[in-house]
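Notebook entry, structure prediction.
Reason for the run: the old model in the group folder had no record of what sequence produced it. Starting over properly, with the input documented here first.
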Amino acid sequence: MNAALSLGALKRVDEEIAAYDKVIERFIEAEEFEVKEQVAGALFAKGITLEQKNDNEAAIALYDELDERYRNAPQVELRKRAIQALIRKGSCLGNLGRTDEELKLYDFIVEHYGSEPGMHAEVALALFSKALVLDNLNQRDEAISYYDHVLLALGDAPEDEARELIAKALF
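New structure, fully documented this time:
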């Protein structure tokens, strides 16, 4: 994983992707939590790299795979990574001009994970992302409503997780 990150820092993108692929292929079926966490991280990082290459369709497929693999994991960290992948997928959909699908995906995240303990920051990020899209569509009143929802979603989240999103929603 560190090799892939170093290759990315050197802008050797194809080699970076190949390094992620090695981690994924070698350890995808591992049962140990720490290894699953590394695989989820490699899938996520590869998706971001694909986005940077403007290969949104491939990134979407990867984020779908990550979500399918970890959405029901017993460990909250893996479920969080699945939600983060869905949020990134939403961004890809937006990049492709598929705004309706993007907005529906953010709604899905809120509906399915909104009451799950420990998911405040991820749910708030989905709400914030939806607010930004609505703002960009000049649907200002609805966007303001979603910025307010961000504050509600973060009501009892640890302050270090919430501070940045609260500031963005308020300003």
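Summary: The first helix runs from residue 2 to 9.
The old model has been moved to the deprecated folder.
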